[in-house]
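WARN retry 2 of 3 for item q-0093 after timeout on previous attempt; input resubmitted unchanged.
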Amino acid sequence: MQELGLNLPTVIILVVIAALAVLAIRRMTRRGLCDCGDHCEGGCSGCEGCAAAESMTAAMEKAAKGK
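OK item q-0093 returned
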């Protein structure tokens, strides 16, 4: 079996991936999985009644029908 060599570039890439994973988990725990808070004044209440969520859904449906 081949030995796993950890050189400096490999360590740097692993650290970057770990940092991005930590940031993603931190964001999910603070904001949840809904991004309506970025687009709606009232924040995100389960994306119910959020105009941004409705427009994203309409755009996805339009794209799906176009294929």
